[in-house]
Predict the structure.
Amino acid sequence: MPARNTADRYGSVAQTLHWLVVALLIIQFTLARIAGNLPIGLDKLVVLARHKSVGITILTLAALRLAWRFYNPPPPLPPMPRWQAAAARISHSSLYALLFAMPLTGWMMSSASNYPVSWFGFVQLPDLVSPDPALKELLLEVHKTLSKVLIALAGLHVAAALKHQFRDHDGLMFRMLPWRHR
Amino acid sequence: MLLAWLASAAAVAEVWQADQNSGTLRFVATQAGARFSGHFGAFSVQLDFDPKDAANARLDVRITTQSADTADADRDAVLHSSDFFWIERFPEAEYHAAGLKSHGRGWLATGKLSLRGVTQPVDVRFELQPGPEIYTMKGGATLRRLEFGVGQGDWASTTWIGDPVDVAFDLKLRQATAAASP
């Protein structure tokens, strides 16, 4: 599989970044759920620290994906009704926006609660805002709401891919998979 | 007897004081690889000091442990609990030093800190800038929280909560009016 995108599918760079982000998002939602159920204590601190490190990783990968996308534009969509193409564009750009907004609101929340972020203990990131408990509560709500929007959009994204695969039989899903469409 | 009293009163020529309204007392600790700071909202500092007789100087500090504030209510609650400062049992931390040594451009106090029922030697370094009716006292110390049992159980792990804690102060000391004229 070529590194760069071809006329009818994504190359290995775009595919690797896509599936890496998918895996990290699953880990990320799992860590958030675990932390939410833990009482205040060292375990919660540890899980949240990992959640932040994974979030910063996703933020970095999102930036790399966007940069790669500009350098190497995605293959054109296969023929489909205009509304579907528009919906795909809107949902893809919204997913990208969330890949930035989720980690950034989380990072701001950490700063607002005076828990600076360290990426896996290797490097401490600068604070985005000053400590402010009221702002922290607000950002927590925004972060949670965005996570629900992300789940809904990711669900729509998967449903659309499955619909193209199993109802339209247009092989669209193979654009983002390493093996060949028959 | 009277002569001895007069002599000691003469040696303690100047008494300088500061509290939370005349400066800051901060601490910087590490959690999950990131340094964060907090401050004490209630403390008092008394410096009995004659620059010509530093060997007989005294530095006495009292800190209300409940006033530890890290801008996060959950973390403050843990800090006040028996696992950390144990404020019900140990409402105050105290530092006492007798005699100051010249240290670079400033002074070194080799006193003892009592915190959470443990008394250990702690070196405090600071500079004194004389001003009109005021001394600016700036400096700090590094102590190891585990020497004082600050962080029990899970919290004793230094993997997630660093052992060294930096303390820094920036104070405006004023001459104590009552004690100034013996």
Summary: The CA atoms of residues 47 and 159 of chain B lie 37 Å apart. Residues 6-12 of chain B have pLDDT under 50 and may be disordered. The interface with chain A takes residues 31-38, 70-75, 77-78, 154-155, 157, 160-161 of chain B (CB under 8 Å).
